[in-house]
C-alpha cells in the first residue's frame, strides 16, 4: 500500500518558491537593466542636445530626463505584471476576440499608461528636436504635436497590444531555459521592424488627422520629419521595455543553473505541488522542470523519481497521475467539442444531406475504412508518417500504406460511467458532419437572420414564460453563428488554452520511460508503460479527429494549413512519443497486459518502422 503524500508547509510549496524567483527576476529588470538602459539613453540625449541648451541647463535637465524615462519604463512593466498570463484567452474567432479585447477595462488602463509614457518620452526628446515641451511659436504645429503624442501613438500601440494579446507569455516545450540577454538580442530586429511599420502607418494617416485639427494639410516637411522620428523613438522605447519584461518573465524552470524545486528541502514533494497547482504559470513551470529532469543527461535529476525511500513511495504515482490528468483533460475537451459540433450540424433541417466527393461517393471516415487505404496516396494527412510536421515534401513524408485501417478509430471515454464506446458503431453509415459544408439550400444571410430572429423570440419567451426553459442538463448545441465563424487555430486555442503543459507531459513521460529502462529497469516507472501507452493512444484518437478536421473545406478544398494549430502539433507529438516508447519497449510488450486499441496501434507503428 502506498504511503500518502506528506503535507508541506506553504513556504516549501512550488508556487511560493517560484513567486520569490519571479520577484527576483522582476527586481533585476527594474533595478538593473532598465535603470542602466535609461541612464545611457538620458546621457546620450543630454550630449546630443548641447546645441540647444547651455551646459548648466543640461546639468539641471539631466536628472529630470532620467526620472521621466525611468517612470515611463517602470509604469509599463508594472502594468504588464498585473495582466501577466500564459494561457490563451479562448476566443473561437477573430470577431469575438477583437470585441472582447477592446471593450474592457484593460484597454482603458493601457491607453492611459501608453499616453503617460508617450508624454514622458516626448518631453525628454524635446530639446533634441529643437522644441520645448508643449510650448512653441507655431500654434498649428503644437496642435498636431499634441494630437500625435496624446492620442495617435498611444491608441495605435494599445490597439495592437490588446488585439494580439501581447500580455501572454509564450513558451516552447523544446526550451527549458531562455537567457534574457539572448532573448532581447534576438528580438532587436523585430523591435526595429515593428516600430518602423507602426511609424509608417501613422506617417501615412497623420496628414488627414492633422487637417481635421488644424485645417491644414501639412505643417512643413522639416516639422513633419521631426514628428516622424519622434514617433519611431517612442514606439521603440515602449516596445523595448515590453520585450525586456517578456524576456525576464519567461526565463524558464532553472534558477542559477538548477531546477527551481532544488531550492526546497523536499524537491520532489515541492515539484508535485507545482504540477497540481491551480496557478497556471506555476503549473506550466513545474511541467517544464519535469520535462527538463526527464530529458537531461544528468542522471542525478531523475534519481529522486526512481529511487523511493521511507515515506517517499508516492512520488512517481503522483507525478504520473498529474500528467495523465492533464492529457485526459485535453482529450475530453476536444472530443466533447467535436461531438457537439457534429450534433449541431446534424440537427439542421438538411442534416441528412451526405457530402460527396468529386467521384460522387460518400466521404470517408476520418481514420481508416478500405476506401481510405486504397486512396491513401491522394490524402496528405494519411500519406505522411504520424508525428511528422504537415506540409512536408513527398520524399520527406515517408508515404506508408496502412495495413490495419481501423487502428486509429479509438474508443471515446465516458468519464461519468467509466466505460468506452466505439464511435464507429453509431456512425457507420454517416460521414463526419463537422467536416461537412455548412451551406445547403439556404443562403448565408437568410440563415443568420433566421437564427437571430429565433434567438430573439426565445429570449422574449423565456423572460415572460420561464417555465418553458429547457432543462439545465440538456446537451448544448453550437449555434449556426459559431459554425460560420469557426477558425480552426483559434478553436484549438479555446479548447486547449495551455497546450505547452500537455506537450511537456508527453515529453516527460516519454523521457522518463525511455531512460528508466536502463537507469532503473525494475522500478515503478517501467511498470507504468501500459498506462502511459493507453493515454497516448487516447490522445492519438481524440486529437487526430481534430487534426483531420477542415472547416475551410468548402472555400479552399485543396488548400492545406500553412502553420499547424496547437492540437495538430500535440497530435503529432503524441504519435511520435507512442512510436518511441513502443520501439524502446518492443521486447517487453508481449509480457504486459495492454488494451486492444493499444495493441492495434502498437502493431501499426511497428509495421511502419519495418519491425
Q: What does it look like?
A:
The protein is built from 22 helices and 4 strands. The strands form 2 sheets. A two-stranded antiparallel sheet has the order 1-2. It folds into 2 domains: about 10-255, no CATH class; about 315-465 and about 475-610, no CATH class. The longest helix is centred in the N-terminal third of the chain and has 35 residues, at about 15-50. It is mainly α and about 600 residues long. Helix 1 (about 15-50) packs antiparallel against helix 7 (about 220-250), helix 8 (about 265-275) crosses helix 9 and helix 19 (about 500-520) packs parallel to helix 21. It is a multi-pass membrane protein. Keywords: Membrane, mRNA transport, Nuclear pore complex, Nucleus, Protein transport, Translocation, Transmembrane, Transmembrane helix, Transport. Belongs to the NDC1 family. Its main location: nucleus. It is found in: Nucleus membrane; Nucleus, Nuclear pore complex.
